[in-house]
Amino acid sequence: MITYLKGYAKKKDSFMSSVAEADGGAQVLWTIPMSLRDFPETRARVDAALAVAKRQPRGPIGRALKRLLIRLQYNGSRRYFTRHRETVALCWNGITGSRRVFMEGAKDAGVPTLYAELAPFPGRMQLDHSGVNALGSLPCDPRFYTSWAAGRADRQDDGWRHLGANLTARASKRADVGQAAGVDLAGEKFLFVPLQVPNDSQITLFSGWVGSVPNMLAELAKAASSLPEGWHIRVKEHPSAKTSLAWPLARAVEAAKGRIVVDNQTDTFEQVRASRGVITINSSVGLQAFFYDKPVIVLGQAFFALPGLVRVAGNAEALSGALYQAESLSFDPELRAAFMSYLDQAHFPHVSDDPIAGVVIDQKAAQARIEAARAAARR
């Protein structure tokens, strides 16, 4: 039996329901259970969850109320799962705020966990017992992927490229950010920076040394002078970001003295295609740039931030060094083929999008991940 917290969106709930079908059914919780009685771990769990909550409270009263809510939710979740040790806890995202303590309560009760999220490729989803994105169970050693692919032609060829066959730029929710096609960028020497949603968990948890999107822009402005003559950095805001970054962008453009150009209108993947490389904190566009055979510079924590796959720039000096070498940026094509083949064949499960049933996971893939979650909980 799977116990999952309702996602309140058809895509999320239909996916989690289909996962549960692979294990005999679901117990759906419409709200997170609550309890006043603390555990020895309560304070630490609450502190960690509050620090990465997507919606940060305003003022001391708001913070106190938010802390109380998360405390009650951790205590309630842990007590619920202590009474239902036979279940597997499933949650959408599950790494920030209230959903984080829901999953932490399950873990501390000894219950297996599964985290669900969108995947960076059409027709796939994330379903992992460790977490999503940089917290997932993907090995961090490049040798794992080359060893996995050794002796297997189907793991070393271009079969993985079908993952990008139906890739399209995200439709914009903002009037000032578009996806215009047909813009001629031929001959332009630039590195493309697709900005991320500033308060997304990818930024609040995994932005590394840059810390935030505005601070990344400031660091890019400082490093831009290291670019070869005639090169520039081209930046585009995220089409789903609710808050404009016009002010930090304007400051970065001014500080970079012509080395940063803002292009919010040209299609994201047309800019990737025309670029000489991509710079990102950990955006999925960085991974998707592999389909265009582009070198990628990663500034934050990402499951694809492996040497050889990308250029990892873990501080300001490394970023300046990467920009200085913009003309010779490269990657290991054999490692990329092995890594992407692993994502395709072993990591991201197939899903179908049914107009009635919603998003449905391949049942064998769901069963395999449920068993992996149970095995991880026993260790």
TrEMBL record:
GO terms (BP aspect): polysaccharide biosynthetic process; polysaccharide transport
Domain of life: Bacteria
Residues passing through the membrane, by range: none
Coiled-coil region(s): none
Name of this protein: Capsular biosynthesis protein
Biological source species: Celeribacter ethanolicus
